[in-house]
């Protein structure tokens, strides 16, 4: 009788232990995700990361992507190697299309585009069927502004003299930009031009694959004016090779650009903000999304990143993934209206 009781007691203990081990095993499996190749989320990332800049070398996107890679490494926020690849073409459309179609589930690929990805999807003659909705917004990093730039020896010393010259004879002034017609650089120039009473269709605009090629055209005498972003022109202003006639910011910038009037100050009531941000693929796993949102936020708070902002003339525009997506929707609505006024909307 006593032996029977003892057996029941020990069999109950064994059964309880077996159930506990089984539950523990199940709990461990539930924490596994695809980000680490089927391993626990804490193992992500397990290999190098690539950031794609959908433009040529030397422009604002390229500089921003390389700044992210440099700061992540210098601050030791990300221990894995981060490299930057350039995929220029179509005012970011080529790099965007490649990312959306080829890297839909690749947790180790990121894209760092800017405002043109919205515009190119909205234009009547748009060259991109893809938009921010085909990716996962992780963080907005910077705010940059448009700039109308001429060579140091140009006869134009202010926006009014330039706009007057175009009104007199549009064929004699060539405007270069690093984005496709109807995209960001083009709009950077057209918005004040329209306010000046110029027919936007009369402006002689030539597009190049990225800001680097466009500024080379200006310095080489193949263009009279460059429409670009402030950060892309900064080093040339400091070296005395160019002068900026106006910027699209709501108010005057600081530092190197403090003496440059805004469009509004020059008499043209308009402004334009260019964001730059980081996206993951559409089907990025939740743990990878959480990883990058955390790391990108932490990066923007480092002294190294703040130094990059100051050096390049970028404004801190940090937004987390959710806020960034909301802002993208608002900007999409605004550009629909602008392109409609220019008769360029779909």
UniProtKB/TrEMBL annotation:
Coiled coil location: none
Key word Nucleotide-binding present: no
Keywords tagged on the record: Signal
Keyword Repeat appears in the UniProt entry: no
Pfam families on file: TctC
Endpoints of the signal sequence: 1-24
InterPro entries in the cross-refs: BUG, Bug_dom1
UniProt-listed PANTHER family: TRICARBOXYLATE-BINDING PROTEIN, UPF0065 PROTEIN YFLP
UniProt family annotation: Belongs to the UPF0065 (bug) family.
Protein name, per record: Putative tricarboxylic transport membrane protein
Biological source species: Brevibacillus centrosporus
